[in-house]
């Protein structure tokens, strides 16, 4: 057999040919979405009922189509669940379950509830899936950079390396199973800290959405801080709920609308939360592999089956970068993504779309309306 034929056969057997075909198809979908946006009518919102609360340092809401008064009470109960999750997961109060775990789990195993145990198992699976780019056990790094930012400086490399030694889900042990009431978590290194900044909102949204669905509400959105969302059912005659995505270069403007269909969505980026030191810009999303702020992408929007998975993956994709994020999507066709790299020049966005059908995404503009 000629060498070229053998090479093609090896590529096919190892899946490279399939991945290449998927990548080509994704590029075709991206091109189709970007062409003639004016000819594709963008779905719009209509009248809604909205209940709001404040939790986890941001605004939360349940948004519903107009309906019977009962749905307002159901939505209120769903918002109460978000406060319960905050009380359990917050690292800013000493009396939360996670504050206790962070304080004591390196000394002896800490008993935790079945719900929290299952959540930590999910976090471990996502950590493994993303090769550590999503890591909820990086509280030491987050705290180090938070203090440095407050003091108007950047941490030393020595301090970063010390925090890295206390970072990683590999240091977190879970003991117990579904039949065992005595479920525990422990750390094998002093100083490890769990911090759910990259999944906590999504987890709370999923619980609230599950409650709404259990009470027979079929059409709603739950969002936390607008960056993490779950939508179910229909709105305004559309097959889903239209959700706007902000331009990462000009945050007062919208550059796309996504039609969510019984899906979670999350957007990650450092266009809002960042600080400058010695003329350089440092974002708030840290790479747990090297301890420094991640760079390379302007923003990432992920669509998945749940808000928690979407939130974790949007952070992971931002950290791992464009090429690895695209490869992940090639291997997980149930995960959709809009990856926005830093423009090569000018102010025009060049979004790359993965696994999102053309009738779900509406790119409205890729440059500022106010651009000269």
Annotation field: number of helices: 10
Question: What is the fold-level CATH name, i.e. the topology of the largest domain?
Answer: T-fold
Characterize the largest beta sheet: strand count, sense, and whether it forms a barrel: 8 strands, antiparallel
What sequence of helices (H) and strands (E) makes up the elements?
HHEEHHEHHHEEHEEEEEEEEHHEEE
Q: Which percent band covers the strand fraction? A: 15-25%
Q: Roughly how many Å is the radius of gyration?
A: 22 Å
> Which runs of at least 5 residues are low in confidence (pLDDT < 50)?
1-14
In the CATH classification, which architecture of the largest domain applies? Roll
Q: Looking at this structure, what is the CATH superfamily of the largest domain?
A: ApbE-like domains
User: What is the CA–CA distance across the termini?
Assistant: 59 Å
Give, in spatial order, the strands making up the sheet with the most strands.
Answer: 1-2-6-7-10-13-14-15
Query: Structural class of the secondary elements?
Result: alpha+beta
Shape: globular
Average pLDDT for all residues:
88
CATH class of the largest domain: Alpha Beta
Using DSSP, what is the number of strands? 16
* Count of domains: 2
Helicity range of the residues? 25-40%
Topology:
Blueprint: H1 3-13, H2 16-34, E1 49-55, E2 58-64, H3 70-89, H4 97-104, E3 110-111, H5 114-129, H6 139-150, H7 157-164, E4 172-175, E5 184-187, H8 200-214, E6 220-224, E7 228-232, E8 241-246, E9 254-260, E10 263-269, E11 274-277, E12 280-283, E13 297-304, H9 307-320, H10 322-331, E14 336-341, E15 352-354, E16 361-363
Antiparallel strand pairs: 1-2, 2-6, 3-5, 4-5, 6-7, 7-10, 8-9, 9-16, 10-13, 11-12, 13-14, 14-15
Helix pairs in contact: 3-8, 8-9, 9-10
């Amino acid at each position: 057999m000629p060498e070229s034929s053998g090479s093609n056969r090896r590529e096919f057997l190892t899946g490279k040919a399939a991945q290449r075909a998927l990548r080509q198809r994704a590029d075709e979908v991206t091109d189709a979405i970007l062409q003639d946006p004016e000819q594709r009518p963008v779905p719009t919102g209509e009248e809604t009922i909205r209940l709001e609360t404040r939790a986890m340092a941001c605004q939360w809401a349940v948004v519903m189509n107009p309906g019977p008064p009962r749905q307002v009470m159901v939505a209120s109960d769903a918002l109460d669940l978000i406060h319960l999750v905050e009380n359990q997961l917050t690292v800013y109060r000493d009396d939360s379950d996670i504050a206790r775990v962070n304080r004591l789990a390196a000394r002896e195993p800490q008993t935790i509830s079945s719900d929290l145990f299952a959540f930590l198992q999910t976090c471990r699976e996502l950590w493994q899936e993303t090769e550590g780019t999503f890591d909820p056990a990086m509280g030491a790094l987050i705290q180090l950079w938070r203090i440095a930012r407050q003091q108007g400086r950047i941490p030393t490399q020595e301090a970063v390396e010390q925090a890295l030694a206390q970072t990683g889900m590999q240091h977190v042990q879970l003991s117990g199973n579904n039949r065992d009431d005595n479920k525990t978590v422990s750390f094998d290194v002093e100083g490890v800290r769990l911090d759910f900044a990259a999944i906590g909102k999504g987890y709370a949204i999923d619980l609230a959405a599950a409650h709404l669905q259990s009470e027979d509400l079929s059409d709603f959105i739950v969002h936390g801080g607008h960056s993490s969302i779950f939508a179910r059912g229909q709105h305004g005659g559309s097959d889903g709920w239209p959700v706007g995505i902000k331009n990462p270069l000009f945050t007062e403007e919208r550059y796309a609308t996504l039609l969510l269909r019984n899906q979670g969505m999350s957007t990650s980026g450092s266009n809002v939360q960042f600080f400058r030191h010695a003329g350089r810009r440092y974002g708030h999303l840290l790479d747990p592999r090297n301890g420094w702020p991640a760079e390379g992408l302007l923003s990432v929007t992920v669509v998945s089956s749940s808000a928690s998975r979407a939130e974790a993956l949007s952070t992971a994709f931002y950290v791992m970068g464009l090429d690895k994020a695209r490869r992940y999507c090639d291997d997980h066709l149930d995960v959709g993504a809009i990856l926005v790299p830093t423009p090569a020049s000018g102010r025009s966005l060049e979004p790359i779309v993965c696994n999102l059908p053309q009738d779900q995404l509406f790119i409205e503009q890729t440059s500022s309306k106010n651009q000269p």
